Write the structure tokens for this entry.
Amino acid sequence: MPRVAATLLALMILTACAREDEPRHDSHFYAMGTRIEITVRAQSGAAAEAHAALAAEAATLHQRWDAWGDGALGTLNASLSHSDTAAVPTSIQAGIERALSLAKASGGLFHPGIGELVETWGFHRQPRPQAPPPSPQTVTAVLQRLPPIDAMNLENGRLDTGQTGARLDLGGFAKGLALEKLGRILGELGIRHGLINAGGDLIVLGDAGGRDWRIGILDPRGDGVLASVAARDGECIITSGDYERDFIHEGERFHHLLDPRTGRPAQATASATVIDEDCARADAAATALFVAGPGHWPAVASAMGVDRVMLITPGGQAELSPAMRDRIRFQDREPLQVVRELP
């Protein structure tokens, strides 16, 4: 399977059994730049209602959080293009506030103000435009305009970035935020057991026919599943991997997970997986821990409040938190493992 096609299988459903009184229904739609798969146990009418409600909400969220669109975040970015402060649309105030809090906890490794850098690399559109990577001089110039994370504050509905022309991009956070919302909608519709898979990032509700959902984590350097975990009611499993969006130029591969400190793709990590009940936090943490890299991620995980983490290095070594080691089950091959305590 080509690596580009495998991105939708970053976290695969390995086990899902339906109860006889609650038939299993599978459906999918496309939104937020990815395929969103829904598995629910419900009667057919309730399943169809859930599909329609989730598809409509996902389309709304896509427009709202598109940094280059005409929704709420795009409108905010337009205002910031000529100022260091702007009014934040009501619909995204709570999300921006959460993003800034997580960014500060990460020490800026998850950085909501990274939009200009993402655009400079061409990762703001899918598929990426055919172009060489930016020059070191261009990257340096963009980094000099990156707003300091400690200077970014939201107060009384206004965002102060500390840097005129800053562009926000919540790509390392918005999918987790969307999963939270979509999961709540299923609950509000009375569906107690289900799974939502947004391009490999998941939220699970209830169980899979009297047992935990068992979810597979893609091998970032192979064609199949590296390991599986038993996911419990309300948990989200988020993976950031260097195989998800990339391009090759003159024999060198570049991916979309950019280090805000260097302006270039982070090189020390192949994938980072986080399990947490807070999907938005898991999403932001997976990004930050990927950038932090081997040996450095435990301090960042502790600061961000996550304790179920697995990081895979480019050489195939697995670094795990103690809580994740208790949950993980490796499949066909068992990599060299290092368990790292969180401070």
Q: What stands out?
A: Residues 11 and 217 are 5 Å apart (CA to CA). Confidence is low (pLDDT under 50) at residues 1-20. Residues 44-65 form the longest helix (22 residues). The domain at 1-343 is CATH 3.10.520.10 (T-fold).
